[in-house]
Amino acid sequence: MNWMEYTILTTTEASELISQLLMDAGSTGTMIEDKNDVAANQRPEGQWDIIDEAIAERIGDDVKVTGYFEADEKLADRLSYIDAELRRLRGMDLGMDLGKLETLRHDVAEQDWTESWKAAFKPFRLGRHMVVKPSWETVEGREGDHIIEIDPGMAFGTGTHETTGMCVRLVEKYVRPGDKVIDIGTGTGILAIAAAHMGAKQVLATDLDAVAVRVAAENVAVNGFADRIDVRCGDLLEVVQESGNVVIANIIADVIIALAAPVRARIVDSGLFICSGISVERRDDVLRTLKQADYDVLDVVTEGEWCAMAARKR
Questions:
Q1: Among 14, 161, 247, 281, fewest CB within 10 Å belongs to which?
Q2: Under 8 Å between Cβ of 261 and 237
Q3: CATH 3.40.50.150: which residues of the chain?
Q4: Are the C-beta atoms of residues 278 and 253 closer than 8 Å to each other?
């Protein structure tokens, strides 16, 4: 089977929006290449560097969001949809820099496509002690490091985005051994696996996308946490009846605002709500909502155009 790689040149701020556009068009998954992610995962001189700076040079200044489409009878319609959506975005004032929105197309055979994907996904560090690697790479971490093996299969990202890194830092700081944790919108399961590494005795990982649930469940099993992480498909309030010491949501500001009050029913008294995926422009909106929903905000972490928060249920 032949495939088409369809790449859109954009910015860090707009990368998630463009990724969703490609998914809506029928992409089997997306890959975001952003040199800012590489810089965020480098370490000062004298510490262990896990990402080669050459990767950042190869990526260049533009953020590249790539979708993958089967070269079938639906391809022309999918590409027409993307072109129409890009024209619409160019005419809108979204309050963010969308970048060039130029497109690149490349036809590849399935074998070449797979190897191209593998070449782009290298090990990287999240937080202080989490190292994410694909199965085909070998890394040697520092003392106290936890290795998370993720094979995303072209879907749901690899965890390099700033929002995931900030979430992992808060998970490392606040998840305690014996905690029960709920991860909303788990994607590849990185945050659920990180919580298990920090000693959570039970993790419920949910996602609305059945394919994401399958991928997350596979990654959970590969990392040896099938006995502690339960991956479920569906909406949090529908498929989870249990309460957690910590609830994690790495989504977007609007969803976090909508969840803040109802998610309290799934957080134990004095438990924590860790949320990320919040653009800097929406920071105050989320803070206001959390306070109105009877949370005490403990932490606000900012990187680039994004921020993450930890709040305690009163």
A1: 281
A2: no
A3: 160-313
A4: yes
